[in-house]
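Hi Y.,

Following your request, here is the sequence exactly as I used it, all 336 residues.
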Amino acid sequence: MVSRHSRTAALLFGLAFLTLFAVQVSASSRPDREAAVSAALAWLHSQQSNDGKVGGFGNSCETAWVVAVTGENPDGASWTKGGISLLDACEAETPTFLANKDGGRIAKVLRAVVAADANPRQFGGLDLIALLESEYDPATGLYQEFSLFRHGLAILALHEAGQSIPAKAVETILVQQRPDGSWGWPLDPTPGDGSPATGDTDTTGLMLQALRAAGEPPYTASQNRAVQLLEEQQNADGGWGSDADDASNSDSTALIIQGLLAAGVNPESSRFAPGGETPVQTLLAFQAANGSFYWTHDSPGAIMRSTLDSILPLVEIYPDDIETPLRFYLPLVISN
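Below is the corresponding structure, written out as tokens. Let me know if you'd prefer a different format.
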């Protein structure tokens, strides 16, 4: 016969387990993120014109990419106006948009086409993969001669297209890391000389993503230095500005959230909630009532770039997310 104390102990254990489970579920910001993404997509829908385009020149491809990443079809009926889909509009702009063969621009179009499950080898009359790979300089390891940020975009796009990344391209990122652990948008002409050159938070967040996409494991010394710096540079409101002393903005905060996730770090942990607000909560606070995101709290108003950038980290999977309910078994304790 099982004693009353045994039954009580089993019951207390079960209640403790259920309490832990409830805390895990409530800790996830996933419902808030999903609601924010839905509202942002509705706003983007309202910006689509009768020629299928969204926003100014080049924005249709950016929007098509973000739409596809959220799981919607930029070539489908819901994103078609005047008989022209969002992806059609992107394709129509592509030859002109890529006329100067800028590695960063090619990467933006390539990732949109891949995410939309279209053919990157034949889009707008171009082989986007071959075009981007032709920009690679094996001597420098760069896909973009003057911008490390755009070099990172190229690595991410080629990875999403299933292409291998040259080891030299990764080595260049590591060599370009500043002494403080950051990376900067422009290239450092004399890397490794010990000069106090500093980078910016946006590029640092993107380089963390690029390193992981290129096959680097998480928690390397390089990544750890960058994460530590980002922790030190975080504002009290939970966000980041473009530079260490800047007020938080949605674009920088979004890029850094993605970078932290890529580096295997939980941006919703207490480590990154210096004032009680996590970076995700801070990012969500930039969303306007109409679903768009603005750049800073000092300059409210719908910003296309900020809205597109802000959606991306909100569709990521976070450590506190539980995609499906956990199955658990609590044995019944039966007294004879």
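The first helix runs from residue 4 to 27.

Thanks again,
Q.
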